[in-house]
Amino acid sequence: MSKPSKKDSPKGKHDPRNQVNDLTGREWVYFLNSMELEGGEPRIVTGEKLNELSEEEWAKFLAPVIDTLYPTSGKEAYAHHIRKKHPSPKPPQLMKRLIEFFTKKGGWVLDPFAGVGGTLLACSMTGRYGVGVDLSAEYLELYEQVSRELNLEPQKVYQGDARRLGEIFRGEDYLFDLILTDPPYGDMLSRKRTGERKKKTGSDAPTPFTDHRDDLGNMSPEAFYGALEEVITESLRFLKVKGYVLIFCKDMQPTAEHHNMIHADVVNRLMQIPNLRFRGYKIWYDKSLNLYPFGYPYAYVSNQLHQFILIFRKEPSDHPMP
Ligand SMILES: C[S@@+](CC[C@H](N)C(=O)[O-])C[C@H]1O[C@@H](n2cnc3c(N)ncnc32)[C@H](O)[C@@H]1O
User: For the whole model, what pTM was predicted?
Assistant: First the structure.
């Protein structure tokens, strides 16, 4: 081992080949910093924290499945009797858990398919700012009714086509921390009911969200994927770098022609958006749904009681994923 020279310091070693000065290698490098103002070292940034969870709470959230059985009556139902006027309202309690992982208090959350406000109610419950857009004035009005009933501060909502967010938000300087949304899935939901479902409801009538031609729920699958990409691309203009995009998605029963793993097709399509990286998914298992004896006793037909929560992040331009 070489003996430390007189010129060595806690900041490193002096290189004997250095004929210019007595600096150590590290001191030399710091001197090369064009932005050195008073000789101090640059602050090392270890990254801004994502949320306020403890390490244990963080680890718990990373479990792949969230299973829930929320009440549909009483105080804990969050005015389900009003929200159920929408064909598929999301439980605000579930949205709360997602918001608490992906943002901090005072964070901003966008839902471009707000419906009766599962995301927006969760913002009010957690001290976040929410902004919602929906094609249907009726659903937004129901959301406001729910907020009044629950005595929650209503969040900002806009009626319009989420493919035109740029126009809708003209004059605003929104910068969101999170996009949390549950899009309508093509004409899939509005397909005629068959089998057990038809028996249960006594009708084969489809249940579209609206009759509007701009409703993604009324589009063919091909048009739907293009429209969803448009909405997410528009939304990303208002999302901060390293902000997350969470998209709910339910698969369909496979057919002879297609696997119908809609979540995989959505990921394939959205991965084409520059700087949007897929980071994985969580599964939401909704235990409030009924199990039907589909196929009994002839063939296996699965019950889809779960949905995917697809997780993307907006990466810095030209920046590889860490
Ligand atoms: C699955 S629902 C969202 C439900 C919502 N998460 C909730 O908790 O009520 C999808 C919503 O997207 C809306 N929608 C469909 N096409 C749209 C479009 N082009 N722009 C904005 N909203 C649209 C529908 O009116 C419907 O309320």
Answer: 0.82
